[in-house]
Amino acid sequence: MNYSLAALKLLRVQLKDASETLSQNALTLGGILFQRAWVQGILVSNDGDGRLLLDDGTGVIELCLSGDFCLRHWDLGMYVMVVGGYLVRPGETPVRRMVDLSALPDEKQCSILKLWSFEELNHGMAEQFAMISRELGGIIRFIQVSCLGASASSPSRVLRAKAAGEEAVLREMHEVNI
């Protein structure tokens, strides 16, 4: 692992566009070389055998835990930050660091840590993308990724954020697929 290459803060939708480089043991995305990715999201699956699924609002990422991370208790619904190697191949993608962010009390701490909050990803960014798309014009189709059961009155923070994102996008783009 070449630690002189930065761990890029990415969304799942961006990771799928990463491509392997031939001469270096790295990946490239938009001309930037990297070996490690930094993602944030909600744990949506845990098989109890060190394999977790993380939903960052744009897609689901499989995490393969090893060492001390397997010994920790990871609950479904936890909001976590993960830094680890990203490999475009079947098999294990090692997690280098994983932190439970569920207990962060407010947005201020998230901004101090330079993290995206779940609400920022699923509401604020969705609204900004829709606004920019509308202003640029010529957008043939805008698709907002949400989830079943999204509702402003839901007791779930995740479902409330998804619903707020849907409403914000609909305000900006009247013809949108959600």
Structure overview:
- With 178 residues, the protein is of the alpha+beta class.
- The chain folds into 2 domains: 8-103, OB fold (Dihydrolipoamide Acetyltransferase, E2P), CATH 2.40.50; 117-172, no CATH class.
- It has 5 helices and 9 strands.
- The protein has helices spanning 12-15, 68-71, 107-112, 118-136, 157-172; strands spanning 8-9, 19-20, 27-29, 32-34, 36-46, 51-55, 60-64, 79-85, 95-100.
- Strands 1, 5, 6, 7, 8 and 9 form a 6-stranded mixed β-sheet that branches. A 3-stranded antiparallel β-sheet has the order 2-3-4, with no helix packed on it.
- Helix 4 (118-136) runs parallel beside helix 5.
- The longest helix has 19 residues, at 118-136.
- It starts with 7 loop residues before the first strand and ends in a 6-residue tail after the last helix.
- Mean pLDDT is 73; it is low at 90-96.
Element string (H = helix, E = strand):
EHEEEEEEHEEHHH
Please give the share of residues in helix.
25-40%
Shape descriptor reads: flat
Total tally of structural domains: 2
The beta-strand count equals: 9
Class by alpha and beta content? alpha+beta
CATH superfamily of the largest domain: Nucleic acid-binding proteins
Task: Calculate Rg over CA atoms.
Answer: 17 Å
